[in-house]
Amino acid sequence: MAEDTGKSATDRITEPLKAAGEALRGVGTKAAENSSAISLTVLDHAEQNSRQAFAALRAAAGATSAAELMKVQGDYVREQSNRSVEQARQIGDLITRFGRAMMTPPGKREE
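Structure tokens predicted for Phasin family protein:
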């Protein structure tokens, strides 16, 4: 009888610890997935920005007047500013979504 009491006391201690360990493992896995998603998004943005920069360089190299060159540069700066704002918004949205998901109890998450 004493063994049964000791066993259930041990179970009462170890089971929550095991559950906490599993939850932490799940959080770590999800954090790694989220970090990867953000990194891939940033790489996509960098690729897009590089392509646009080279397109602007080609247009600038083909400019036949100072006015045309200034127009190409102005257009590029304006478009890049708009792109930067949109890209920052996308990254912010990802971080916000991941943060909310991590703060939601595991049983209530929409994975």
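The helical segments are 2-61, 66-103.
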